[in-house]
């Protein structure tokens, strides 16, 4: 990530923070949950009640407010160790509406991921497939596990993580599409896509990519089977037929037509 930000925050996996001096010690699991919850809405106050819910999803203790104050104080010292005790903290402060973590958006790996995804898809749509591959690979390389695991039982944390996971899957699909358009030998792609397609059997874009890769690698019968498997799954799960794009590709495969990358 950009070097100009004093502290970098990694939320696409176990929470981590880095400064020019190296890794930042974020303390206990509950203290890390405080920082993770504040990173869900950087620059916006998070009410104490919601922050307590993030740290103690089932039931907050009677001393929750005092504990939160202690966790925040510890985080202030960890994030800005050179700041005099009575000075106003640059990153973390308390306002009337709650605690606020003020950081540059690009200091959070999730924001950096979204920008790279946007750039990669733009490159893909304009036909710059090799650049798209490199950009999307960089985006996916930021992931080290599930997003925001420290607040996985907190409602807002679940919502934000689910959105990021959807974008992660979109990035994977876009990467496969870029590779498929760039590669002359798609046999490796055809070998790697089935596992992802089985994991998301109703994801039509994955089926479309898999069918195209199989067909272009000379495995026409398997491409046809992949279509029928998706069609049955969609019918059983949602009572719908495959979309027009998937049906069009299926028709081209049946007719033995050339399918471009």
Structural topology:
Blueprint (H helix, E strand, L loop, with lengths): L6 E4 L5 E4 L2 E2 L5 H12 L7 H8 L8 H16 L12 E4 L2 E4 L7 H17 L3 H13 L13 H28 L4 H13 L4 H13 L3 H19 L5 H11 L7
Antiparallel strand pairs: 1-2, 2-3, 4-5
Helix pairs in contact: 1-2, 1-3, 4-5, 4-6, 5-6, 6-8, 7-8, 8-9, 8-10, 9-10
Question: What distinguishing features does this structure have?
Answer:
mainly alpha; 57% helix; 7% strand; 261 residues; 10 helices; 5 strands; Serine Threonine Protein Phosphatase 5, Tetratricopeptide repeat; disordered N terminus; Arc Repressor Mutant, subunit A; two-stranded antiparallel ribbon; 3-stranded antiparallel sheet
Explain this structure.
The chain has ten helices and five strands, in the order βββαααββααααααα. A hairpin with a 2-residue loop joins β2 and β3. It has helices at residues 29-40, 48-55, 64-79, 109-125, 129-141, 155-182, 187-199, 204-216, 220-238, 244-254; strands at residues 7-10, 16-19, 22-23, 92-95, 98-101. The strands form two sheets. It has a three-stranded antiparallel sheet, with no helix packed on it. The chain is elongated. 57% of the residues lie in helices and 7% in strands. With 261 residues, the chain is mainly alpha-helical. The model is unreliable at 1-5 (pLDDT under 50). Among the domains are: 7-105, Arc Repressor Mutant, subunit A; 184-261, Tetratricopeptide repeat domain (Serine Threonine Protein Phosphatase 5, Tetratricopeptide repeat). α7 runs antiparallel to α8. The longest helix is centred in the middle third of the chain and has 28 residues, at 155-182.
């Amino acid at each position: 990530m950009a070097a100009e930000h004093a502290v970098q925050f990694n939320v696409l996996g176990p929470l981590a923070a880095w400064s020019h001096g190296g890794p930042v010690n974020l303390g206990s699991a509950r203290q890390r949950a405080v920082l993770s919850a504040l990173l869900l809405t950087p620059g916006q106050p998070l009410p104490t009640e919601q922050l307590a819910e993030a740290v103690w999803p089932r039931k907050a203790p009677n001393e929750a407010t005092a504990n939160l104050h202690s966790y925040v104080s510890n985080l202030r010292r960890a994030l800005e160790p050179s700041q005099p005790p009575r000075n106003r903290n640059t990153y973390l402060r308390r306002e009337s509406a709650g605690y606020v973590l003020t950081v540059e958006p690009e200091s959070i790996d999730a924001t950096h991921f979204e920008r790279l995804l946007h750039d990669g898809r733009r490159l893909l749509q304009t036909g710059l497939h090799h650049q798209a591959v490199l950009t999307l690979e960089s985006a996916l390389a930021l992931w080290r596990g599930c997003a925001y695991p420290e607040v996985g039982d907190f409602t807002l944390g679940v919502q934000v993580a689910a959105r990021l996971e959807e974008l992660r899957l979109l990035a994977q699909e876009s990467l496969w599409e870029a590779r498929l358009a760039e590669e002359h030998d798609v046999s490796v792609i055809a070998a790697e896509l089935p596992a992802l397609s089985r994991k998301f059997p109703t994801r039509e874009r994955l089926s479309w990519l898999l069918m195209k890769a199989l067909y272009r690698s000379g495995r026409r019968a398997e491409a046809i089977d992949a279509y029928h498997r998706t069609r049955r799954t969609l019918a059983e799960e949602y009572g719908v037929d495959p979309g027009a794009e998937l049906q069009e590709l299926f028709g081209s495969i049946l007719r033995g037509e050339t399918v471009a990358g």
